[in-house]
Specification:
12 helices; Aminopeptidase; alpha/beta; signal; globular; 379 residues; eight-stranded mixed sheet; two-stranded antiparallel sheet
């Protein structure tokens, strides 16, 4: 057993690896009443995988480890990730910051879907594992707080990815494929009920017409459904919106709407993602301006924002190009001439990134490890 020199012990004491990274990341908005949420792009596996199915008790599915014989026909679970959706959410937020001059809120789950499904009811999402229940509650706690902070109308965009044959954006309003095909749906069946009830425009005009999100994406060069060109899925695959959209949109009341955005894999992969995200951000902002504000209330500011890491473990501060920093609660005004600072809060220490995108803590820890190893071996 080698004897450690005192200064090599000091080096070893500094070898602090990020403890499992952050299970939930929350980036506070700075005045734009939009919430971006992404739950299927995580890669961490702090617990065992969820079973591929729950059990059927004769009336309902039981999602619990050790429940008995599983039923993959009635109670099958989905465990595949939506690749690149977290990166896309981060990029989408930055694009919206640049377009609007103020930033939306972003909430991202970092746990692999095989372990925890953030877009399901809690039983199926966690299979009774308490540590995952805690993370799930944290994720939706941030969403609840973010909705309250809007203090009025706003909209959630739930970012997902599909693997269907047709490379187009599938926009989910909690209206089923069958109802879109038949046209047999009403305002209170949708996740944008609040918007539809207060808007002077017709329901179909907002859902799949000239003032729809799908139309704005078409104008940016990307196919989308529903839209004027693709008003209904017909016999093609289509995701209408999952748990988050149905539960946290305005279908059951409230002033905050929700739309699920399912993006094709070819649009999520680099380098196409860069162009797609710009188009999606532009479409989202046009939809927001048309339905959630007036032209006079929104100022577009062309200004870049850089990330300046702080020395604390609990937050990261955005710094404007003018050098202004802030970690205080931002105001909610929508007219501004600078990009406000944003505070990032996580359950565990945030991963700071270096200029090449690699987690800074990993680089620091790796360097410390090498020095510590040399000290142990040679001193």
């Amino acid at each position: 057993m080698p004897v450690l020199a005192p200064w090599s012990l000091l080096l070893l004491s500094c070898m602090t690896l990020v403890d499992g990274s952050a299970y939930v990341e929350y980036v506070e908005g700075t005045g734009l009443p939009i919430i971006l949420i992404s739950g299927h792009g995580g890669t961490l596996s702090p617990e065992r995988d969820r079973p591929n199915a729950g059990c059927w008790d004769g009336q309902k599915c039981i999602f619990r480890r050790g429940c008995g014989k599983t039923d993959r026909t009635r109670c099958k679970t989905t465990r595949s990730n939506d690749l690149y959706t977290k990166d896309m959410t981060v990029a989408l937020r930055e694009e919206l910051c640049g377009i609007a001059g103020v930033c939306p809120t972003a909430i991202m789950g970092n746990i692999n879907r095989r372990v925890l499904d953030f877009n399901r009811e809690i039983e199926e999402a966690c299979f009774g594992v308490q540590s995952m229940i805690d993370v799930y509650n944290e994720y939706y706690g941030y969403l609840e707080e973010s909705k309250l902070a809007l203090n009025g109308s706003g909209i959630i965009f739930d970012i997902h990815g599909h693997g269907h044959d047709i490379a187009r954006a599938e926009l989910g309003y909690a209206v089923t494929k069958a109802r879109l095909n038949s046209g047999n749906y009403t305002e209170n069946m949708t996740s944008i009920r609040n918007l539809l009830e207060r808007s002077p425009y017709e329901m179909d005009d907002i859902l799949r017409g000239e003032h729809s999100l799908g139309q704005y994406l078409l104008l940016e060069g990307y196919d989308a459904i529903p839209s004027p060109v693709y008003p209904s899925p017909s016999d093609t695959s289509y995701y209408s919106g999952g748990y988050t959209t149905k539960t946290y949109g305005s279908r059951n009341g409230g002033s905050v709407d929700a739309i699920q955005i399912e993006s094709a894999r070819s649009h999520r992969e680099m380098p196409e993602q860069m162009y797609y995200v710009k188009a999606l951000a532009t479409a989202i902002f046009k939809f927001y301006k048309k339905h959630y504000t007036t032209e006079s209330e929104t100022t577009t500011v062309e200004q870049t924002t850089t990330i300046q890491p702080t020395t604390t473990e609990a937050e990261t501060t955005l710094v404007t190009t003018e050098g202004k920093t802030s970690t205080s609660m931002p105001t909610t005004t929508t007219t501004t001439t600078t990009t406000e600072a944003a505070v990032v809060t996580t359950k565990q220490p945030i991963i700071e990134t270096s200029s090449n995108g690699c987690p800074k803590s990993c680089l620091d820890s790796f360097a410390a490890f090498i020095w510590g190893f040399l000290c142990i071996a040679f001193f």
